[in-house]
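On clarity, I found the account of how folds are encoded harder to follow than it need be. Since the whole study asks how a given chain folds, the encoding of that fold should be made plain. The format is easy to grasp once an entry is in front of the reader. For illustration, here is how one protein appears when written out as sequence plus structure tokens.
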Amino acid sequence: MSGDGSVACVTCHQLEHGGAEPRRTSIGIGGQVGPINSPPVLNAALNFVQFWDGRAPDLETQCAGPITNPLEMGSSWDRVLSVIQNDPTYAAEFAAVFGGERPISQENVQSAIAEYERMLITPGRFDRFVRGDASALTDEERRGYALFVSVGCTACHTGPNLGGTMYQRMGLVRDYFQDVGRPLTEADMGCYNVTHDEADRHRFKVPTLRNVALTAPYLHDGSQATLPEVVRVMGRYQLGRELSDEQVRSIVAFLNSLSGEVPRDAFPETPTATPSAPPPPDSETPPAERPSSEAPTAR
């Protein structure tokens, strides 16, 4: 659906990577570098708002943003509707589902994408454990869960999605952005970009931890490459704790238990080939460190 046909939703939201992608920030149309790490689409329906800065109240609103964003898909709704209308399979399916004189409309496209996302719920071993099956987790995973609770992670990572229920400042007890070692970007401002309230500077939607073992790299800036790294960073900046190697290993073991099963119907046959992401432009500057003059609209 992108302006040149090179970028699709799945380009940045790859199911085999937990509905995210293994890049610090996404690459959009024309090889443009996006400003922020792509969040997972799996279980997004359980989030209380969408995007890191929470500017979309629901999935229907969220899925419309990247389509017309010049850094992401760089398309228009006229083009999107034309592409769907000219594909016999899609045209027939929209007519069957929505009916009426004009089944292919912006509203119906948004509805179709949002309904697809709502099916991307991934139950797993942790859910069986919560329902009373102690054998669903190993001894080390259970120790990790106990630590996860006792050190305070559940103050933010709570609810059915282990996150996605609130906003929180990045650097709650220690200034993350003072230590980050790079120029700050608009994406680092978080909810401030939406509210323009100083209290919201550096505040973000708390991300889900479901399938977190698959969604590296981590944080809004994609700066942490591995789970042990991001667990240490969270301990230091959000909890004011320097976690020991043993504590980190146990918590990481628990986080690995949060990988779930993607619904079989999440992998439908598509009428046309799915585009892959274009290679990033040659540069010595890592994508997450490259400031953008565009307002961050990605995720």
Summary: The longest helix spans residues 106-118. The mean pLDDT is 91. The CA atoms of residues 144 and 250 lie 4 Å apart. Strands lie at 167-169, 203-205.
